[in-house]
Every structure is written in structure tokens, then in C-alpha cells.
């Protein structure tokens, strides 16, 4: 698993979502990529207080575990919590993947 020349080398849901499968449309792939980028931005840039980045710091301390308050996510990107609630099996792999980079 990793990146090589900008191409995601990972099997499974994230790979199918981002690169498309036989049934994925270009707009669905684009949407998946957009959601992945939003999750990455949230994890890296959400500030609880000035210069306090709880999710980024949490992943530095323990890269295998992250607790996210949905209210924090809602305040950063209002559409992401509803996506997680409506289709967790589609979006949780994107959250997991966004924590790796």
C-alpha cells in the first residue's frame, strides 16, 4: 500500500472509490476524491484552540487510533457528518485512508 507516481496502490473500497470500478461514474469518483480531501484537511487543520490541532497530534501519538467528535467535523465541513451517518461503509474507509498521509 502506498503511492507511486500519484497513483494509489491499495485494494479495496478506497481504491475502487478513487480510481473507479466498472460501475463507478466519473462524478462518483470525483465526489469520493473530494470527500477524501475534506477529511484530510479536517484531520490536519482543525484547531480546537489557536495552534492546537487535536486530531493531527492524536495521530502522532497513536497512528492506529483516532477519536473524532462529530461536532468538530460539523463545524469544519457541515456535509461530512451526514455522509458518515448515511453511508458509514462507504465513507469510513476514506476517513481511515485520510489518516495515513
UniProtKB/TrEMBL annotation:
InterPro entries: MCM_N (IPR027925). The lineage of its organism: Eukaryota, Viridiplantae, Streptophyta, Embryophyta, Tracheophyta. Residues 38-98 form the MCM N-terminal domain. It comes from the Eukaryota. This is MCM N-terminal domain-containing protein. It comes from Gossypium tomentosum.
Amino acid at each position: 500500500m502506498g503511492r507511486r507516481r500519484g497513483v494509489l496502490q491499495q485494494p479495496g473500497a478506497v481504491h475502487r472509490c478513487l480510481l473507479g470500478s466498472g460501475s463507478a461514474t466519473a462524478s462518483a469518483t470525483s465526489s469520493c476524491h473530494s470527500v477524501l480531501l475534506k477529511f484530510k484537511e479536517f484531520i490536519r487543520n482543525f484547531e480546537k484552540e489557536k495552534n492546537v490541532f487535536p486530531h493531527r497530534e492524536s495521530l502522532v501519538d497513536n497512528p492506529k487510533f483516532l477519536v473524532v467528535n462529530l461536532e468538530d467535523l460539523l463545524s469544519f465541513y457541515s456535509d461530512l457528518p451526514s455522509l458518515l451517518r448515511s453511508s458509514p461503509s462507504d465513507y469510513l474507509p476514506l476517513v481511515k485512508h485520510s489518516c495515513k498521509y
